[in-house]
């Protein structure tokens, strides 16, 4: 990335790594570069950030040092009054800075970041509602709570992953199901909630579920053209298990007659008789 000088591609931290026209930058670095504005349509440049503007911003920050790693190219500035701190987006995330993904896309250093003002008390050891591992004993940058029910606790990384999967149309507290108050608080705390439908609602999300099985799964496939060969008739006709549909065999590989139109795999056939079993050389 021209801004943070990292090649990491974890979308939950950096957003997408965009590369075109001699430029290579992280999505989140773009959105939080202090002097960079979206002057184009969404399909122009990267997310509306025009290539000439990106080059100009890269030139501007080339000599600005990150207050965390001390390397050049720092493009994110704390928006608190009179705070001079400037940093790379990923350095800020690792140090506990907050970059917001709404409105003016403001960023704040670890001294001036927004914090939760919720009265929430844990009863014994509290687990993250998403990963089911223990959270810290009090609210912090890495430990958040639902402001509505004050009973649902999360790791920041876990609720960020949930926000990216659920997106704006479905993101809500997993416990009390509140959406309005919950989303507003998560936005304020720097959780990125993309304005799109949930990942599971996108076209093709389940395309692999509808692909017909198309290979011979016998322990020793005899077909000279390979396991994927499937002819309409003859010894290399491919039959699928009539019970599960997830295993297949060539007619000859399971020693089936021409008249056989139905076949059942080992997993589905009768365990006592082994009828239809074509695996393991039986």
From TrEMBL:
Which residue intervals define the domain PHD-type in the entry? Answer: 1-113
What is one Pfam family matched by this protein? Answer: zf-HC5HC2H
Positions of transmembrane segments: none
The annotated pathway is: Protein modification; protein ubiquitination
Keyword terms of this UniProt record:
Metal-binding, Nucleus, Transferase, Ubl conjugation pathway, Zinc, Zinc-finger
The record's listing under InterPro entries reads: EPHD, PHD-type_Zinc_Finger, PHD_PHF7/G2E3-like, PHF7/G2E3_ePHD, Zinc_finger_PHD-type_CS, Znf_FYVE_PHD, Znf_PHD, Znf_RING
For this chain, one GO molecular function annotation is: zinc ion binding
Q: Which residues form the RING-type domain?
A: 128-177
Q: Name one GO cellular component term.
A: nucleus
Q: Where in the cell is it found?
A: Nucleus
Name where it mostly resides: nucleus
Q: Which PANTHER family match?
A: PHD FINGER PROTEIN (PTHR12420), PHD FINGER PROTEIN 7 (PTHR12420:SF47)
The protein here is known as PHF7 protein
Q: Which gene encodes it?
A: Phf7
């Amino acid at each position: 990335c021209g801004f943070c000088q990292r090649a990491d591609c974890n979308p939950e931290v950096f957003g997408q790594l965009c590369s075109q026209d001699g430029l290579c930058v992280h999505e989140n670095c773009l959105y939080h570069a202090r002097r960079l504005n979206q002057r184009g349509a969404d399909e122009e440049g990267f997310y509306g950030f025009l290539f000439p503007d990106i080059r100009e911003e890269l030139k501007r920050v080339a000599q600005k040092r990150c207050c965390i790693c001390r390397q050049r190219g720092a493009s994110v500035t704390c928006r608190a009054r009179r705070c001079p701190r400037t940093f790379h987006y990923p350095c800020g995330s690792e140090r506990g800075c907050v970059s917001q993904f709404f409105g003016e896309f403001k960023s704040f250093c670890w001294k001036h970041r927004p914090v939760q003002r919720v009265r929430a008390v844990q009863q014994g050891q509290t687990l993250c509602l998403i990963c089911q591992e223990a959270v810290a004993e009090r609210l912090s940058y890495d430990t958040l709570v639902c402001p509505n029910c004050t009973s649902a606790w999360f790791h920041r990384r876990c609720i960020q992953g949930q926000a990216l999967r659920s997106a704006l149309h479905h993101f809500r507290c997993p416990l009390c199901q509140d959406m309005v108050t919950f989303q507003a608080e998560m936005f304020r705390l720097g959780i990125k909630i993309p304005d799109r439908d949930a990942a599971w609602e996108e076209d093709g999300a389940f395309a692999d579920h509808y692909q017909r099985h198309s290979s011979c799964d016998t322990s020793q496939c005899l077909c000279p053209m390979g396991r994927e060969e499937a002819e309409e008739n003859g010894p290399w006709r491919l039959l699928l298990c009539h019970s599960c549909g997830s295993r297949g065999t060539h007619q000859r590989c399971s020693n089936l007659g021409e008249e056989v139109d139905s076949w059942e795999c080992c997993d589905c056939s009768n365990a006592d008789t082994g009828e239809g079993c074509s695996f393991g050389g039986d």
